[in-house]
Amino acid sequence: MDSQQFREFGKAAIDLLADYMDNIRDKDVLPSVEPGYLMKMLPENAPEEPESWKDVLQDFNQAIMPGVTHWHSPRFHAFYPTGQSFESIVGNMLSDGLGVIGFSWISSPACTELEVVSMNWLGKLLGLPEEFLNCSDGPGGGVIQGSASEATQVGLLVAKDKTIRRLLEADPTLSEGDVAARLVAYTSDQCNSSVEKAGLLGNMKMRLLKADSNGRLRGETVKQAFDEDIAQGLIPCYMVANLGTTGICAFDPLYEIGPVCNEANVWLHVDAAYAGAAFICPEYRHLMKGVEYVDSFDFNPHKWLLVNFDCSAMWVKRGYELVNAFNVQRIYLTDTDTNVKVPDYRHWQMPLGRRFRALKLWTVMRLYGAEGLRKYIRNHISLALHFANLVRSDDRFLVEPEPSMGLVCFRLMDGDSTTKLLLDNLTAKKKLYMVAAT
Ligand code: PLP
């Protein structure tokens, strides 16, 4: 393909997507296809000879589109939202157009530095303590991970490395394997599946502690769990607090959990994947009271801040602890030798390669402005309250618990089996898509 064809193909694709968004409301939110439909439609082998881009777009319309679940339909209410905006799509396109891999500063200086700047902007918008920002005097900073799952995993691996180093330094007769086998991670039984998975992947026992009746994990529960484990010779190492649980969007009290973790030398990570975006509005920041106790904090602009997947914003108080844990040297991977605080981001993440993800985040922040983003969040929350009032006005339904952020949980007064039947019927009609919570 030459640059002229690229212009034509690109413009046709943008027209197609603009039409898609203009008409998305008219589509069923769920597709009417059976498992295997696309595998049957497409050839078994890649073409030997190049085909025309027009044929590709035609197949996109005829074969791909019928199998798409429309996450950006106004009738899509399942899971949590996934961010999208025209601004972000174009930001992403610019990143794809450059096609750089920014694992170290020299591998593309702008890729690293725009990420530093964008993460400072975003951290300030959220009202995070200065210590998390690269622009402060300390060793803190932000990094864009691919997902909240990765951020939780990174936190766990760094906590593990840090705890092992600390204990071996204090007692060189200990073996690394023995310490590693006794480490324990904690979170609430309301955590997202990805948190439990971090324990599996990081080979660390992960205890799901019981949340209270409001879905919040309390400080005294955490303290009790640490004490029980210490009494058994185990070593508390990593704690994931949730700001906005997946089921009911509950907020763990950091001001209770934080002091307990700090006292016990346990790394405290915050998973605010969805609800963290709301902290750009000062009126919701009380929900992160105690954030000063936290070691790492993560939320997903790709969920609720108009940035397309993938863009998970993670801040840490001490960037050098990530470098300690993840630093593997090769002759072809020179580190940046500078007095300026410029991270070599390959040490801050699991993969080596990394995309220029800051471009879409920066584009969105510039083209919406902080006030535009706040308006977007506030509008979602007021729509949720409006919907909850509509549901409440029908006495067959109960809204429970109180709506939190953009999330409304409701059920039929008749009980779980009727509620499930209603959900199944709605799903079968494909007009609305919601999911169950317990
Ligand atoms: N944490 C919470 C609270 C979530 O709700 C989700 C997804 O819904 C995740 C983590 C996983 O996010 P990601 O897909 O970015 O890993």
From TrEMBL:
Gene3D superfamilies: Aspartate Aminotransferase, domain 1, dopa decarboxylase, N-terminal domain, Type I PLP-dependent aspartate aminotransferase-like (Major domain). InterPro entries: Aromatic_deC (IPR010977), PyrdxlP-dep_de-COase (IPR002129), PyrdxlP-dep_Trfase (IPR015424), PyrdxlP-dep_Trfase_major (IPR015421), PyrdxlP-dep_Trfase_small (IPR015422), Pyridoxal-P_BS (IPR021115). It comes from the Eukaryota. Keywords: Lyase, Pyridoxal phosphate. Its cofactor is pyridoxal 5'-phosphate. CDD domains: DOPA_deC_like. SUPFAM superfamilies: PLP-dependent transferases. Belongs to the group II decarboxylase family. This is Dopa decarboxylase. It comes from Plutella xylostella (Diamondback moth).
